[in-house]
Fold this protein.
Amino acid sequence: MKANTGYSIFETFVGAGGSHIGFIQENFKTIYVNDFVEDCLKTLVYNNPNLIEEKAYIDNRSILDIDAKELRNNLHVNKGDIDVFFGGVVCKGFSLAGERNPNDERNYFYHKQLELVEEFQPKISIIENVPGILNAKVLSEKVNEELRSKVDDLWSKLENYKGRKAALRKINGITNSFNEEGNILRKKKIELLKTLTKSGYYISVIDDIKSIYNNIGYNVYISVLNSAWYGAATKRERVIIVAVRKDINIKFEFPQPIFMDESLLKKNMDKNLLKLPKPKTVNEALSLIDYEKNDIDNIPMKHSEKTIKRFKYIPEGDSISNHIENLPEDLKISKFYSRGSTMRLNGNQPSPTLVPGHSNFPVHPKYHRSITVREAATITGFPLNYKFFGNHSKRCEHVGNAVPPPLARALAKQCIKLLDEYYFKKKNNL
């Protein structure tokens, strides 16, 4: 029987290492990590010397360029040997922002991910993604190139229209004829999607994932987990898809919350959870930071004088969109441009999801500036000494795209429980 430490983990789309941290904290041994963004891997390797010590295979290729059988042979791993396969598949194609092109190539990364799962046959496979994946749809593999081209053409026009609309908003230049152009495009989109759905060419991503897992020998469990339940100072929600190999015959149990308040309590959750400690707040997270330390990740952005003046009108925990009428004429902006960095965090609450990109990090609870990379990372649950690589915008993205480490650690603990039971039964022929 294996001990409850030292289980193996195989990771794709590892990013800057949010999920990796959580599993390493529970003493998992890394076999393989992959991400095609070089700065992400640089960040991961610099902060995790265990990867070199354990001689993990560090792969900078796109997952689309990986041959599953060849990789397994290179790793000298037998089918079924890997304990946990974790992959936070690229989520931009499923995000509720944008037009969600059903033929976006990023939508199909999960197919390649599941090819790897089929080849390696890990005991547990985990896919992490945005909540938008629950209602996301993609084109079936049966769709011919002509129809795919038709979809791409229409979605290109929709994105072009969206860009022009954003530019016209800035100058209040939107006309009735321009709005009508948008209505026509949206009608075409609705009709095309109806046609695709009727023909069975427009399919649910979740249903497709469950079907593939079932066909390659896995039972599937799905839940939406809030990072604040497990000790992060952010309310970031993630869809967690866990697949357990059928021969193991043990049900996966999602981690129970250890922090709770009314803002985190879901409709069908036990109200006794309100007896748990309150979730970690933004102020609690920020209080951990040494502001005297020379830290490139803690250097504030240089905002324009006008932007700083605008920030001063934002109350704590509020957005400038609610106060535009109070702004002097020279500071007024469209409500459309009042999101992201024009929202001030409430220091006494967990933060909302920290959207990647420097222009979208919210305003500090007290100071008239956006929060720094270090502040965002600490709110997310990264160690205080974690160093990020790349330019400022990229470092912001690395934090914003990361799985909060406390959430990953909670999942790691549940994987250990299942694996301990599996190896115990195997040893005792139960």
